[in-house]
Design brief:
It contains 15 helices and 22 strands. By secondary structure, the protein is an alpha+beta fold.
Length: 533
């Protein structure tokens, strides 16, 4: 083989034209770190970056000399070997190739000067890991990768020896691991991660593994392989930092947060959400989320989750009602998103939940104030417009829509003869009597001053509307016992039935005109506006 003496411990392989190993000796099995090599592709055992060049060598084996290649990591970093190929002239299978491998790590010698040989320079320069041999007397030899990666000049000798570069907080762990390797209780596959000081004073992270070859006459020390994992450690630290910040946000957030599985069950819930629905975490986690959602809102949320899982909807914001453990309703603004696996498939849902119960109550109060009379509590003139529009749209062919306009008689005299407090007290009693005498479902509104309107839907006949108006007149004509004494007033009513009118506003005007006619005819009476009797 290129006139160079072949060593007895060189590995020998016979490779078929297909690239598969047909024969392998024990040295090959030891070097490649596995038995039963026969039938496996040779390239499978080489470092990916070296496979292309070796494939080229196999096609023209006699046109190339020896090559330094990297073998698949066997626990000592990137194992390096010298590879030669040639045809086997005596092989009965035409095209078979003999591959010889010489593990360059077996050239390590106790002497420091041995590490300056051309062969070992190839080994060290090819390696992306730091390979160090620590001698029993404390001397050490390291590959050029060490100074290159750590930024030191070639030949750098740290004061205090090799271990002086290790971070003080990692030194004890490194020493223990080294002693375990020497004692045979730590294998070369059990790496220890330590920080090593670089030339600029910063620390880099390395995964270090070792093998005790002190009794090997060609090595004579402990072989340490250090793989630079600074980038990996930085990524791990960043992930840990993100996770820590997420965990702090999750646990301390004033918003309720829940992780919900694709099946709708709660995976995790923070304290804010547990307080919001009055449940302990143990009672909430693992339960179907529908258990805390108002029945009327469950279908909506279920549809959102289904759409998110199919990709039709990535995010949904809704105002829903939750059910507290004690039964009361909690209004919540929810923002739900789907979290995906790296391959894009849905993993789980994350829901942010804000308690807006107080805001809803305030909105309800403001809405009530905007559409209700503060004195009587009845819907006001603005609300009457909505009520009439709705009743007008919903009127049916088999029933009637009636509007009763109520104008109090002699109310001004009460204000003039007593005072406005007496007038206000009287209006309050009028409102109560109106609510008591109308049918269930009829709408009673204060139109303004001493005027009221009653909207009656689904009236069976105009006569029933007239009878209701007369009951109202009779009720309002009874004496009123006020704080200042007893008073008696009356009421003039106009009744309009939806028929020839073209709008709800015209229907209301018809009832108003009819009430005016009742006053003109002597007050305390009911007048119909064009009722088809």
């Amino acid at each position: 083989m290129d006139n160079e003496e072949e060593r007895a411990d060189d590995a020998r392989l016979v490779v078929e034209p297909s690239g598969k190993i047909r024969e392998a000796d024990e040295s090959a099995e030891r070097l490649l770190g596995r038995p039963n090599l026969i039938g496996t592709p040779l390239l499978e055992h080489l470092h990916p970056t070296d496979r292309r060049i070796v494939a080229s060598l196999l096609t023209t084996p006699q046109q190339h000399g020896a090559r330094v290649v990297r073998l698949i990591d066997q626990g000592l970093g990137s194992q390096v070997a010298e590879l030669r190929v040639s045809y086997d002239a005596g092989d009965p299978i035409k095209g078979s190739i003999i591959v010889s491998l010489r593990g360059l790590s077996t050239f390590v010698a106790p002497s420091r000067t041995a590490y300056t040989s051309a062969q070992l320079e190839k080994l060290f320069l090819a390696s992306t890991d730091i390979i160090t041999v620590l001698m029993p007397n404390g001397d050490w030899n390291a590959s050029p990768a060490g100074t290159r990666i750590l930024g030191h000049q070639p030949g750098y000798e740290p004061e205090g020896g090799l271990l002086s570069l290790v971070h003080p907080d990692d030194l004890e762990r490194a020493v223990v691991a080294l002693s375990e390797v020497a004692g045979g209780v730590r294998t070369q596959r059990e790496a220890v991660r330590v920080r090593v000081r670089s030339a600029d004073g910063d620390y880099m992270h390395f995964d270090c593994s070792g093998q005790d070859l002190t009794h090997d006459p060609d090595v004579g020390g402990i072989v340490i392989v250090a793989r630079d994992v600074t980038g990996e450690q930085r990524a791990e630290d960043e992930r840990a930092d993100v996770e820590a910040r997420y965990r702090a946000t999750f646990e301390r957030s004033p918003l309720g947060i829940a992780m919900i599985g694709l099946d709708g069950h709660v995976i995790e819930a923070n304290d804010a959400l547990c307080r919001m629905v009055g449940r302990e975490q143990d009672a909430l986690v693992g339960q179907d989320v529908d258990g805390i959602v108002h029945p009327s809102d469950r279908i909506l949320l279920s549809e959102h989750r289904a759409n998110q899982q199919t990709g039709a909807l990535m995010r949904a914001s809704e105002t829903i009602r939750l059910v507290h453990e004690d039964g009361h309703t909690v209004w919540a603004l929810t923002d739900t998103s789907v979290i995906e696996h790296p391959d894009g498939s849905p993993a789980y849902h994350i829901a942010l939940v804000a308690d807006i119960t107080d805001r809803k109550r305030l909105e309800a109060r403001l809405e009530h104030q905007a559409f209700h009379d503060s004195l009587t509590g009845l819907p006001n003139r603005a609300r009457l417009g909505d009520l009439l529009e709705s009743a007008w749209r919903d009127r049916a062919e088999d029933s009637y829509l009636a509007v009763l306009f109520v104008d109090l008689d002699h109310f001004k005299a009460v204000n003039d003869e007593r005072d406005h407090d007496a007038g206000d007290e009287l209006l309050g009693i009028v409102a109560r009597r109106l609510r008591a005498v109308v049918r269930g479902g009829d709408g009673v509104c204060r139109y303004g001053g001493d005027e009221f309107v009653v909207v009656c839907q689904k009236v069976d006949s105009p006569h029933i509307a007239m009878e209701l108006a007369d009951r109202i007149r009779t009720s309002l004509s009874r004496p009123y016992l006020l704080t200042s004494g007893e008073v008696t007033i009356g009421a003039s009513l106009g009744v309009a039935i939806a028929s020839s009118q073209e709008s709800p506003a015209e229907l209301l005007r018809s009832a108003d005109r009819a009430a005016g006619q009742a006053k003109e005819q002597g007050r305390n009476r009911v007048v119909a506006a064009d009722i088809p009797l």
